[in-house]
Amino acid sequence: MRAPVDTLYTRGLGLAVLLTLAACGTTPQQSDNVKMPHGGKVKIPVRQDPTLPAMPAAGSGRGGYYKDDGPGDNPPSNLRDVPDAEVRNEPYSTRSNRPYVVFGKTYTPLTDNQPFTQRGTGTWYGKKFHGQRTSSGEIYDMYKMTAAHPTLPIPSYARVTSIDSGEQVIVRINDRGPFHATRVIDVSYTAALKLGFLGKGSHQVIVERLLPADIDAILAARAAPKPVPSVIARSIDTPAGSEAELTAVAQPEITSMAMLDATVAAPAPMALATGFYLQLGAYSRLDNAEQGRAQLAPYAQTLGKLDVVPAGALFRLYGGPFTSRADAARAAASLPASAGVKPIVIER
Q1: What is the torsion angle, in degrees rounded to the nearest 10, for the CA atoms of residue 343, residue 186, residue 125 and residue 67?
Q2: How far apart are CA 332 and CA 317, in angstroms?
Q3: What pLDDT, on a 0 to 100 scale, did the predictor assign at position 66?
Q4: For 292-322, how does the pLDDT look when each residue is reduced to its tens digit (9 = 90+)?
Q5: Average pLDDT, stretch 335-342?
Q6: CA nearest neighbour of 269 among 258, 254, 257, 279
Q7: pLDDT confidence band for 150 (50 / 70 / 90)
Q8: Which backbone phi and psi does 330 adopt, to 5 degrees?
Q9: 76/51 Cα distance (integer angstroms)
Q10: Which residue has the higher pLDDT, 77 or 254?
């Protein structure tokens, strides 16, 4: 059944498009009028959050965002510290996941549990739609970790990786859009800030759907006691020193990085050199970690040196090191789906 467009609470195009920054100016500042002894007034600028990029005001016609959209007048402080969306398994909305038509094109939302990965241009939307109702019926808050996608289920969650900056976030999908052939996701103001493209308006990104099993694993990892970092580590290319020391603790196997939250994905092994790495898997048994390494050996030219590092009850498989987060993200993006892993970029 075709759903009328007005049931989607669509934002028109509502996109943060990549425009030239040649006209980019400084962030407009609010000011207070202060009376002077001689009867005149002087404007004292209000200090803005110095961690936010300087951007033209919404509706100025300048900047890397769509037309009259743009940043808010008074963004909250410490937006870079806003955590990823709190994932949870919840039923999909019947009303928000019907096929619909926008600009003559039919979109059919996903309602199965099949993996979904997409690469393209990520954009953001802000003040123009702040406080308006989204396709889910929720109110859009540009300062939360949410996003709009044409076909991912509502509500659901996705991991978004910026190819340019290497940054990753997890967002809640609660809206529809962007409706443009080259743009794959429209994220909130705060998500764009954390991904590193708030000022530019867009970046090349990878969008990965988090399936129910992935969410279960993330929740379990968050609930588990944090292990004391282990200093026992060896390269899988080096003969084992003592297998007794590396006896695995019995627990459910974790084989995909989509099943781990990036906030708990980086142990503190002393054996890894300083740099950026791709975490390629986490296993409860050493022999399974070695098998994972063997399966990824054909991609060593892309992944770099493959190391297995014990961390508490798990054995984590790393590739690298890379000189920058962006280099690591590009390596992850070039890994084919047939490799069977979804890397997470970490820094040591």
Answers
A1: 130
A2: 14
A3: 64
A4: 899 898 888 889 999 998 876 778 899 999 9
A5: 81
A6: 279
A7: very high
A8: -65, -40
A9: 11
A10: 77
Q: Which two tokens stand for residue 41?
A: 């007034």
Spatial distance between the Cα atoms of 146 and 175, rounded to a whole number of angstroms: 8
- DSSP secondary structure letters along 269-316: -TTSPSSEEEEEEEESSHHHHHHHHHHHGGGHHHH-EEEEEEETTEEE
d(CA 317, CA 137): 41
Helix H segments across 69-198? 189-195
Contact 309, 272 (CB under 8 A): yes
Measured CA angle at 182 (ends 139, 91), to 5 deg: 40
Q: What is d(CA 315, CA 293) in angstroms, rounded to the nearest whole number? A: 11
Read off the pLDDT of residues 25-52 as tens digits, 9 standing for 90 and up: 333 334 344 444 444 444 433 345 667 7
H helix intervals, the chain? 189-195, 212-223, 286-296, 300-303, 325-334
Amino acid at 296: L
| CA distance linking residue 223 with residue 226, whole number of Å | 9
- With a pLDDT cut of 70, the percent of the chain lying above it is 68
Say how far apart CA 234 and CA 272 lie, in whole Å.
Answer: 9
CB 281 within 8 A of CB 317: yes
pLDDT (mean) for 92-119: 94
Contact between 160 and 122 under an 8 Å Cβ cutoff? The reply is yes
CA distance 279 to 110: 28
Distances (CA, A) of 288 to 68, 246, 292, 339: 54, 12, 6, 16
Tokens 């900047």 sit at which residue? Answer: 63
- Tokens encoding 108: 């059919």
pTM to 2 decimal places? 0.57
Give the span between the Cα atoms of 247 and 268, in whole angstroms: 19
